[in-house]
Amino acid sequence: MLIVGLAGGIATGKSLVAQEAAKLPGVAVVDADKIAWETYRKSTETYRKLVARFGATILAEDGEIDRKKLGALVFSDPEAREFVNATVHPAVQEALEKIAESYRAQGTKLLVVEAALVLESPYVRRDFFDYIVLVSVPREAQIERLIARGNLSPEEARRRVEAQMPPELLAPKADFVLDTSGTIEETRERARTLFRELLARAG
After folding, report:
1. CA distance 26 to 28
2. Pairwise pLDDT comparison (153 vs 30), residue with the higher score
3. Nearest-CA neighbor of 111 among 11, 191, 200, 199?
């Protein structure tokens, strides 16, 4: 089984690419963001560390960590972002290794891990991945897409995009760069072509 990391900033089209990959036989896709959420549910060690550092301001009414509140903090404060990454990413890596074993046992040929920061985080084991695909689009297009989603002001959208490393610095670290600046159908076609090639390599 080959393990492929699917990296890229917010609003670059990672989810669309992941959906296309998931349609191919022998491919499984997992979302590291959802795994991260599981690692800081109430009663986990990660939850305790985050609450000890940030207090009740990051909690929802039910006592769980509110992802939006945590996200706003992470994107506005580099020190907070570093603490969250150092706390959450190792827990996600550990969970991914167990998930990979499970898919390997099921005979999966290609496991795609959708993980925005796989090329940026020093807490990710690079040797866990056979290949890393960077989903890339110009920054202005990222900001426009974020604003179009309707949840963020232009200032907040720009701040979130600029908090992440620019694609031109990440591209040399990736095995493949998938340009998603075209139409949705063009992106789907590029994703299909690339993941068919990776499936062939998986045998």
Report:
1. 7
2. 30
3. 199
pLDDT, one tens digit per residue, over 65-121 is: 999 899 888 888 989 999 999 999 999 999 999 999 999 999 999 999 999 889 988
Cβ partners under 8 Å of residue 180, min gap 6:
12, 13, 16, 17, 135, 136, 137, 187, 190
What pTM was estimated for this model as a whole?
0.89
Q: How is the chain split into domains, by residue range?
A: 2-33+90-202
> Is domain 2-33+90-202 in CATH 3.40.50.300, yes or no?
yes
Question: Which residue reads 């963020």 in tokens?
Answer: 152
Whole-angstrom distance, CA of residue 40 vs CA of residue 167: 29
Helix (H) or strand (E) holding 142: helix 139-148
SS3 59: strand
User: CA–CA separation, 48 vs 101, rounded Å?
Assistant: 27
Asked which of 44-53, 58-67, 143-152, 177-186 is least confident by mean pLDDT, the reply is 143-152
CA-to-CA dists, residue 130 to 27, 110, 125, 157, angstroms = 14, 10, 11, 32
